[in-house]
Amino acid sequence: MKLKAALTSVALAGSIAAVSTPAMARDTINIVGSSTVYPFATVVAERFGRNTDFPTPKLESTGSGGGLKLFCEGVGTQHPDITNASRRMKPSEFELCQSNGVKEITEVRIGADGIVIANSKEAAKADFSLKQVFLALAKEVPDPNGGDKLVANPYQKWSDIDSSLPNKAISVMGPPPTSGTRDAFVEIAMQGGCKQYDFIKKMDKSDMKSVCHSMREDGAFIEAGENDNLIVQRLAQDSGTYGVFGYSFLMENSGQIQAATINGVEPTPEAISSEDYPVARSLWFYIKEAHVGVVPGIQEYVAEFTSESTWGDNGYLVDVGLIPSPRNERMEIAKRAKELQPMTGKEL
Amino acid sequence: MTDQRSQAEIVRNSLKRRYRKERRFRMYGMLAIFIALASLAILFADIITKGHTGFVKTTITLDVTLDSDMMYLDDPSDEDQLSMADFVAPLIAALQEHIPEADSAAEKRELGRLIGSYGASEVRNLLKDNPDLLNTTQTIEFLAHDRVSTYVKHADNPRYSVKLSEQQQRWVDELQEKGVIDTSFNDVLFSRGDSREPANAGILGAIVGSLLTMVVTLVIAFPVGIAAAVYLEEFAPQNKITDFIEVNINNLAAVPSIIFGLLGLAVFIGLFGMPRSVPVVGGMVLALMTLPTIIISGRAAIKSVPPSIREAAEGVGASKMQVVLHHVIPLAMPGMLTGSIIGMAQALGETAPLLLIGMVAFIVDVPGGFFDSATVLPVQIYLWASSSEQGFIELASAGIMVLLTFMITMNALAIWLRKRLERRW
């Protein structure tokens, strides 16, 4: 008798919980997305929580692609309010958002970040051209014996590519395909080097992409997960290995590692901002407007992020490694963010 | 006769070889134990050498004059004024009393950077709560900036790179001599949630998150596991269906934990629409993961209750239920508890399934309930280990020590319970 009553009450409680949770209000902002933006966004979130009466937003580092997927899943408090990305939203992702009812999205460009190719300070500093990077890391490269033909990557040592490069085995650690850093690296560095071959440039777009974007899989390029810190540790131990990651990580670990110059340009904040340094990309976040007013604090968080003391030339994000956008651009973006101007999909 | 002697001789001759063989065999065993112990010792030595400094904080104690003109603040109860006021200026002024040489604007800014960014908020909150303190001088202990802390603690350690300018290093040395900068036990670690500044990061949020998650796991897994074990062992008919269930439970114990995370994501979050990152969902997922362990150990414990006890109880007229409730379960309880505690300890160290349900996240506020966003101890360690700031290296190792303490306590409890309650026949 007692047991029966207990069982019924448990079942009842369970079903109430199951039915009532979808409508559950949430007072903490949920943010997902890029591991590159994560160090910046967490600092902003922490300050925001400390200096306002709103709870501190919760941040998950899911990678740009993973974050946009979660973001576009729908409207409702079980879905995130903001997603960070280290690349721009793709048209296909915008479509996905639209079809799941996430209609109004505000886009905010935070600033820039450079992608560096770095190695241990104990080894010699390197200089690469984008073409050399492509030849070292692509799955298929133009035949070294000449002709417009692609062959499986034959280069085992850097010096095989160019005699000016070190006589060491090619070994580069980089981020996995879910990472925005990988997307940007592939699109800017690999494609940049790849397009210097005329016959590849003349290919139709999808063929060209499949050639330029395929990383080699024979062990010379090592996928190291989203954990950039692990790459830094490996580089410090093994002076023959190079690592690919964001500029902010280089800055934090400048005691142990050094960046290679690309086309002779050192990755400095000025060079990245002015795009003299070839492998630079923009960082973004996206706001789900349907959640503004439902989850408290979203507009205030955006205001904190887009204030001059945060992302300005002397803002605290600069200390973490952000490379600010030019001032007039910042002002324009901040204004649009404040008004929550929705994207049309045409700008992508 | 000769035959026998030669056999004895053969045995005698081979004795040496056999002894050698035996000695060698024993050596292999000892070697195996040595390897296991050595790797454990290396692990502990590495964690402790890296992490012991995590339990030390660097503080800057200053006599701060809360001057209203310097802060542009007349009325600390006015929110607007509070948000426009400059709380860094009094800190710099207080530091300047010790370092009079820093008087240019750039030098002042450099000086102010010695204090962590929480310093200004601390002054703000102090004034907000006690408006009377305006225009008085207060002695306040601030946390030093991460870079200062790294310099003070690890100046000679080549693994750390010093990020202070030459000038700042000189100032820090001077302040240390004057006793303004000092180190003490890091109580922040046990009283706060996560932070992006190593000096302000604490593990309390993760400890509370782990406890909340474990409570949910225990409340679900223990009764269900015990009930399943008792039914399967005492009541279930011996047929193909029972066999099938048994095989499946044993298989379930070997399923990689990430699968349970996928299940949790699909069922609890996808189907039931429960929120991400909350201890309730984490606890339910981990309960599913620990269930097989509890069922299997529970069944083993029930099996070890001698049949004579059952038969004696039945002999004096007890019903099946009375036999189970009055005799079998009490006698099997120590074994069941041991199994449950070991299962819980396993769940405490799990991160993979929590990744998918969003408990791997940056959460500053200490969770207050089962539906608040939370992380758990191993996740906190992972997050710190993958942060780029140098101060997190020692914190991650300190976190590992805290987690290991919990684990060892739980396992010791299991051993103690077994010793204390177990009966042998």
From TrEMBL, chain A:
Keywords: Signal. It comes from the Bacteria. Gene3D superfamilies: Periplasmic binding protein-like II. Residues 19-308 form the PBP domain. The keyword Oxidoreductase does not apply. Coiled coil: none annotated. Pfam families: PBP_like_2. Residues 1-25 form the signal peptide. The keyword Signal applies. PANTHER family: PERIPLASMIC PHOSPHATE BINDING COMPONENT OF PHOSPHATE ABC TRANSPORTER, PHOSPHATE-BINDING PROTEIN PSTS. This is Phosphate transport system substrate-binding protein. The gene is pstS-2.
TrEMBL record, chain B:
It is found in: Cell inner membrane; Cell membrane. One of its GO terms (molecular function) is phosphate transmembrane transporter activity. It is a multi-pass membrane protein. Its main location: membrane. Keywords: Cell membrane, Membrane, Transmembrane, Transmembrane helix, Transport. The chain crosses the membrane at residues 25-45, 203-232, 252-274, 280-302, 323-348, 395-417. Pfam families: BPD_transp_1 (PF00528), DUF3333 (PF11812). InterPro entries: DUF3333 (IPR024573), MetI-like (IPR000515), MetI-like_sf (IPR035906), Phosphate_PstA (IPR005672). Residues 207-414 form the ABC transmembrane type-1 domain. GO terms for cellular component: plasma membrane. The keyword GTP-binding does not apply. GO terms for biological process: phosphate ion transmembrane transport. PANTHER family: PHOSPHATE TRANSPORT SYSTEM PERMEASE PROTEIN PSTA, PHOSPHATE TRANSPORT SYSTEM PERMEASE PROTEIN PSTA-RELATED. Belongs to the binding-protein-dependent transport system permease family. CysTW subfamily. NCBIfam families: 3a0107s02c (TIGR00974). This is Phosphate transport system permease protein PstA. The lineage of its organism: Bacteria, Pseudomonadati, Pseudomonadota, Gammaproteobacteria, Pseudomonadales.
